[in-house]
């Protein structure tokens, strides 16, 4: 292969430039303008007219949501452990603590059983839990029918980190609309991209209005600069919103292509000792990245495969390293269903395979053949490896 095969890369439909030109022609090199308005209209339509706000990253969106929920020093936030640090870091920005919840083997997402345990444990410690951040990892929706009643009973506000999950459905409902609040991300490797950006989705307009105020430096509508509160510069650029307008028109194409990529991997590798991230019943995952887990082997095999693909100019990556294994969060409580550490096992046995929409069928077959060669030629021995525990 001449071309490098990427894990994920932006896909363009050709309309991006028209929107960028529109901004330039109108001199709207700004943080307001036609592109932002159109992107807002398209996004609102997508989320069934729920109130929403574009910001310059999903991380900024989560920060605003947690602040809106009144989270501050000494408070606690529940969060899925199998995720990217951006899901929970905003709790730290506000001086709060995080309690991590293990994954469920069925969904790879937050386990309802571990969640229940975490809440009763935290109550015994007299910890104030102010929010739960539920992640739809790799585009797979979490088990909301089981998770939400547990949180609602305790009056804990819910936040859906749907950064990876635009286009996914949970029992007929779109990811991004399942909790009190949600975020999408438009980072360059997400389902659609603006090169960087995000959306906050809420159930009430007044929440969005407050978050917009903070995202614009908390400026008062006065002839002079007056501040009662501190804010942030979290706005999205009108140029980037133009890329978003074009990208929104390709969401269905991207979804169909990701689905095909996922099916091809599953079908081609079905006789190998691997499993693929399961899809929970009645739901449809956007297959943002295809995740493959070795059934019997350890991290040596995972790293070996990634190295082998890299030598052949193919990018694959390990799964998210769970937050409870991060040196940054070593003091944070972590609750599992029982003895088994599901998220740790998923991490140590998992590989994210190239899932870029621009990858051709021939390129994917090339990747599949490499994976087969690696597995056919390697004599596996179960090894333990403390690689991830090294500083
Ligand atoms: C990408 C990602 C984020 C952060 O998105 P940004 O737009 O880059 O801030 C948050 N959570 C998860 C699960 C992600 O994958």
Provide the structure class. Answer: alpha/beta
Q: What is the arithmetic mean of pLDDT?
A: 95
Strand arrangement across the biggest beta sheet:
1-9-8-5-4-2-3-14
How many separate helices?
A: 12
Low-confidence segments: 380-391
Name a few traits of the molecule.
single chain; 391 residues; alpha/beta; four-stranded antiparallel beta sheet; 12 helices; disordered C terminus
Question: Care to give the gist of this entry?
Answer:
The chain is an alpha/beta fold and 391 residues long. The chain contains twelve helices and 15 strands.
Structural summary, described in words:
With 391 residues, the chain is an alpha/beta fold. Helices cover 36% and strands 15% of the residues. The protein contains twelve helices and 15 strands. The protein has helices at 16-25, 34-46, 58-68, 89-93, 112-124, 144-153, 205-215, 238-248, 251-268, 299-311, 342-349, 361-377; strands at residues 52-55, 76-80, 97-101, 129-135, 158-161, 169-170, 173-174, 181-185, 198-202, 274-276, 283-284, 290-294, 317-318, 334-335, 350-353. The strands form three sheets. It has an eight-stranded mixed β-sheet with strand order 1-9-8-5-4-2-3-14, sandwiched between helices. The chain has a four-stranded antiparallel β-sheet with strand order 10-12-15-13. The longest helix is centred in the middle third of the chain and has 18 residues, at 251-268. 48% of the residues are buried. The model is unreliable at 380-391 (pLDDT under 50). Bound molecules: pyridoxal-5'-phosphate. Pyridoxal-5'-phosphate (PLP) is lined by residues 57-59, 83-84, 86-87, 135, 161, 163-164, 185, 187, 198.
């Amino acid at each position: 292969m001449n071309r490098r095969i990427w894990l994920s890369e932006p896909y363009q439909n050709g309309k991006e430039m028209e929107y960028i030109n529109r901004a330039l022609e109108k001199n709207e090199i700004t943080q307001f303008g036609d592109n932002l308005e159109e992107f807002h209209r398209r996004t609102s339509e997508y989320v069934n007219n729920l109130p929403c706000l574009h910001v310059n990253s999903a991380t900024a969106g989560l920060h605003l949501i947690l602040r809106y929920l009144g989270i501050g020093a000494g408070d606690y936030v529940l969060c899925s452990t199998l995720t990217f640090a951006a899901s929970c870091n905003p709790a730290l920005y506000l001086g709060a603590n995080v309690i991590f919840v293990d994954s469920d083997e069925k969904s790879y997402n937050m386990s309802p059983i571990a969640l229940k345990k975490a809440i009763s444990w935290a109550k015994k410690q007299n910890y104030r839990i102010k929010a739960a951040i539920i992640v739809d990892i790799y585009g797979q929706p979490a088990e909301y029918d089981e998770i939400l009643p547990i949180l609602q009973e305790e009056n804990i506000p819910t936040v859906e980190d749907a950064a990876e999950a635009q286009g996914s459905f949970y029992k007929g409902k779109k990811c991004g609309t399942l909790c009190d609040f949600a975020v999408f991300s438009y980072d360059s490797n997400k389902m659609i991209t603006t090169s960087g950006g995000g959306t906050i989705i809420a159930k009430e307009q007044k929440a969005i209005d407050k978050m917009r105020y903070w995202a614009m430096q908390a400026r008062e509508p006065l002839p002079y600069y007056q501040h009662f509160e501190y804010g942030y510069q979290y706005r999205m650029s009108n140029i980037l919103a133009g890329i978003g307008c074009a990208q929104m028109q390709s969401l269905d194409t991207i979804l169909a292509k990701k689905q095909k990529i996922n099916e091809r991997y599953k079908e081609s590798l079905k006789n190998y000792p691997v499993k693929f991230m399961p899809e929970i019943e009645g739901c449809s995952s956007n297959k943002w990245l295809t995740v493959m887990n070795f059934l019997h082997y350890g991290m040596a095999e995972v790293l070996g495969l990634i190295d082998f693909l890299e030598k052949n100019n193919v990018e694959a990556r390990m799964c998210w390293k769970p937050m409870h294994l991060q040196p940054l969060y070593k003091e944070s409580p972590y609750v599992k269903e029982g003895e088994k550490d599901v998220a740790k096992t998923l991490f140590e046995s998992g590989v994210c395979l190239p899932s870029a929409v621009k990858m051709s069928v021939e390129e994917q077959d090339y990747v599949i053949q490499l994976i087969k060669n690696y597995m056919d030629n390697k004599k596996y021995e179960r090894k333990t490896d403390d690689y991830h525990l090294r500083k």
